[in-house]
């Protein structure tokens, strides 16, 4: 623990500090958006959005390295592809009822495959692993500003439109009949998910970011009677998982992202398992 | 019974020669019905006969292929906020973390002005929701978790949600589904009182329940006939349901899709 603390304040290794701060800041947005995703049962859609982001990352790295478009960095590529995937997947799930899961699975895999093809044609060595599974050394100070900005947006949306978002998650058709533009709010939710994915892909990677989005909310859901209780608890759980993950990863020289996810996943399985045992026993 | 035609108010619901098909399967054929404001009426008929389709046309969730539907003289979409709707199968997840009050307050969405923009209910909305819960006898459960309620209690909360919007027309799809007989009696009393204040349209396959409550029933099986409930005899029921036997058998041979769409 002392070693970890030393690393945190060591000016030689700002990325440990940045990684932890990014994770803690993201807990706010993740707690709120993750709760909506879990309550609305769209974890699968969120997973598809996250994975298809690799397409955008690959394309932007290729354009940057092979064609010298310096402005085209992976964050911009990821952002564009995440939002595009969120809208396409959202519209598919709203209008193509029967084939929904197949289409979404196709978008999921095709997005990743396109990304890998671009990466293969990108000159120089590109480390796909760090995008897939996270690499906190890639975190810069400006990322922290972006995460803080997302927090502000998500908090404002959740505060002002809580009643409508709640109704849309609970019973979309009824919300629509009460004059709520339910489909619009649903797409908004998917776009927020996309933003969360992009901003935290550097810490835990696009493969595992969905776990960090939904596991804290899923744990919180076991103890909550109201949606906003679940959000507050999910933020606390998310922050706790990030801190525990960092505390374990550094002294043991483990990668940060997988350590956080193992902590979160184990907690969820233990909580859900013990609740099940209590119910049946 | 014919006073609805001479009333100066537009009818609560008007179907004029409406036909509707899911792809190639005709569900409704040349339906013409007028339901006067203040009337309590029931929609009865066999499963797959088109009851739910009628409801969804009234709500503007479906558009007729032919003919026109008007609600309070308006296009159904534009009259939605004046209709309190209780769905048969709520889409919600049984584990969803909401309290009873949270659910009922959803009925208060769609208020005009700033509060409507944000979906805030305000104190007036909260009052309407409390009163609605009181009417269905669920005021004590206001803070209960919706997930822990019994089927009958949930049904009553969903009726309260429809009432919280202070509707002029209450549209209930199978209010007695999942309800035990004790709750059914209670529900009957609630609906009887509400019937004195607003138009009620109630889908039901339970003719006994309906006969006590409404004087007219819309019998739907592709075509629509309106009968006074006092005159619904064995012959009419046989007529209504025998066609159903043929319809279902026919449907199974030709296209099992009818069941998934119905």
What does this structure look like?
The complex is a heterodimer of chains A (281) and B (262). Chain A has one domain (2-280): ABC transporter involved in vitamin B12 uptake, BtuC (Orthogonal Bundle). Chain A has 281 residues and is mainly α. In chain A, 84% of the residues lie in helices and 0% in strands. With 262 residues, chain B is α/β, with parallel strands linked by helices. Chain B has a single domain (3-261), classed as 3-Layer(aba) Sandwich (Rossmann fold), CATH 3.40.50.300. Chain B has helices at 3-6, 51-58, 76-79, 100-105, 113-118, 122-135, 151-164, 181-194, 207-211, 234-254, 257-261, and strands spanning 13-22, 25-35, 40-44, 66-71, 83-86, 169-173, 199-203, 216-221, 223-228. In chain B, the strands form two sheets. Chain B has a six-stranded mixed beta sheet, with helices on both faces. Chain B has a three-stranded antiparallel beta sheet with strand order 2-1-4. In chain B, strand 6 (169-173), helix 8 (181-194) and strand 7 (199-203) form a beta-alpha-beta unit. At the A-B interface, helix 8, helix 9 and helix 11 of A face helix 4 of B.
CATH class categorisation of chain B: Alpha Beta
The amount of beta strand of chain B, in percent, is 15-25%
Q: Oligomeric state of the chains?
A: heterodimer
Low-confidence stretches of chain A: none
Number of helices of chain A: 12
Rg from alpha-carbon coordinates of chain B: 19 Å
Most extensive chain-chain interface: A-B, 27 and 31 residues
Question: How large is the count of helical segments of chain B?
Answer: 11
Count of DSSP strands of chain B = 9
Strand content of chain A: under 5%
User: Which residues of chain B sit in consecutive blocks of at least 5 with pLDDT less than 50?
Assistant: 244-262
Q: What does the main sheet of chain A amount to?
A: none
Secondary structure class of chain B reads alpha/beta
Average of per-residue pLDDT values of chain A: 89
**According to CATH, what is the topology of chain B?**
Rossmann fold
Look at the structure and give the CATH class of chain A: Mainly Alpha
CATH evolutionary superfamily of chain A: ABC transporter involved in vitamin B12 uptake, BtuC
Tally of discrete structural domains of chain A: 1
């Amino acid at each position: 623990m002392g070693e970890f603390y030393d690393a945190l304040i060591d000016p030689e290794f700002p990325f440990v500090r940045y990684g932890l701060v990014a994770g803690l800041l993201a807990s706010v947005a993740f707690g709120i958006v993750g709760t909506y995703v879990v309550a609305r049962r769209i974890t699968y859609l969120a997973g598809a959005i996250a994975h298809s982001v690799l397409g955008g990352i690959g394309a932007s790295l290729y354009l940057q390295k092979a064609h010298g478009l310096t402005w085209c960095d992976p964050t911009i590529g990821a952002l564009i592809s995440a939002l595009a995937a969120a809208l396409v997947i959202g519209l598919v799930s709203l209008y193509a009822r029967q084939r929904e899961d197949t289409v979404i699975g196709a978008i999921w895999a095709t997005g990743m495959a396109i990304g890998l093809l671009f990466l293969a044609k990108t000159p120089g060595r590109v480390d796909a692993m760090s995008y897939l599974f996270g690499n906190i050394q890639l975190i810069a100070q400006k990322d922290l500003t972006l995460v803080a900005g997302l927090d502000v947006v998500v908090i404002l949306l959740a505060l002002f439109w809580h009643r409508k978002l709640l109704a849309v998650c609970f019973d979309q058709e009824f919300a629509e009949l009460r004059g709520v533009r339910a489909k619009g709010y649903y797409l908004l939710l998917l776009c927020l998910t996309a933003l969360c994915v992009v901003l935290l892909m550097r810490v835990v990677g696009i493969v595992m970011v969905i776990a960090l989005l939904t596991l804290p909310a899923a744990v919180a859901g076991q103890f909550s009677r109201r949606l906003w209780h679940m959000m507050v608890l999910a933020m606390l759980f998310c922050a706790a998982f990030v801190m525990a993950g960092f505390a374990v990863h550094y002294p043991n020289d483990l990668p940060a992202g997988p350590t956080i996810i193992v902590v979160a996943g184990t907690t969820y399985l233990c909580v859900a398992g013990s609740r099940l045992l209590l119910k049946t026993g | 019974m014919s006073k609805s035609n001479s009333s100066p108010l537009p009818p609560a619901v008007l179907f004029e020669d409406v036909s509707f098909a899911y792809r190639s399967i005709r569900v409704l054929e040349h339906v013409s019905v007028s339901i006067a404001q203040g009337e309590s009426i029931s929609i009865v008929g066999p499963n797959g006969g088109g009851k739910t389709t009628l409801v969804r046309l009234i709500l503007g969730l479906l558009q007729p292929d032919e003919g026109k539907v008007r609600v309070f003289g308006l296009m159904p979409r534009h009259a939605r906020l004046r209709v309190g709707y209780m769905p048969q199968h709520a889409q919600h997840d049984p584990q969803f973390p909401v309290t009873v009050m949270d659910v009922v307050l959803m009925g208060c969405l769609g208020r005009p002005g700033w509060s409507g923009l944000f979906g805030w209910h305000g104190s007036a909305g909260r009052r309407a929701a409390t009163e609605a819960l009181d009417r269905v006898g669920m005021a004590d459960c206001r803070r209960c978790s919706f997930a822990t309620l019994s089927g009958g209690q949930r049904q009553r909360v969903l009726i309260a949600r429809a009432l919280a919007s202070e509707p002029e027309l209450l549209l209930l799809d199978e209010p007695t589904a999942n309800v035990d007989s004790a709750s059914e009696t209670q529900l009957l009393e609630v609906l009887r009182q509400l019937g004195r204040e607003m138009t009620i349209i109630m889908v039901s396959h339970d003719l006994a329940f309906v006969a006590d409550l409404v004087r007219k029933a819309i019998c739907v099986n592709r075509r629509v006939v309106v009968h006074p409930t006092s005159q619904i005899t064995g012959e009419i029921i046989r007529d209504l349901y025998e066609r159903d036997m043929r319809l279902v058998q026919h449907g199974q041979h030709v296209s099992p899709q009818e069941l998934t769409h119905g």
